[in-house]
Amino acid sequence: MNSKLNDDLVRIVLKRNELNRLNYDNPEYDQVEEELHDMEDLFVNIHGKYLEGVLAAVHKEVCPDTEVMVPIAYVAKKYTVTHNAQPDNLQFEPGFNEGLIIDARGHPDELYRLVLVPSPARLILQAGKKFRKEVWVDQ
Fold first, then answer.
1. pLDDT for position 105
2. Backbone angles phi, psi at 100, to 5 degrees
3. How far apart are CA 95 and CA 117, in angstroms?
4. pTM of the model
């Protein structure tokens, strides 16, 4: 498992959640938003090539008619964060309506999404509350 990839993804997820808790009129909003964008740019610079290969393979299998986007596009806007048995072991769950909308092979009438989730870094294919499946896990 690429621990740097996971650690960087965790930082982005926590920063996105922090930004979501702030109102636009909060004096900290612009600073947090700028920090998030810098983190996302760095994430793409460091992990982009690797993740683009992963995403291309997943798209080929799951949604060949959907264009592969930059990896940051697959990160949800908000995650539910819980603690596992140890306080420093965070678990992340995206909302059911989070992720990049795709045309899933064999399911033209369903709204499917691909979402990048940390701990471990993985891609989840989901369709509302009725379907959720890991389609890639970082090894």
1. 77
2. -85, 125
3. 11
4. 0.90
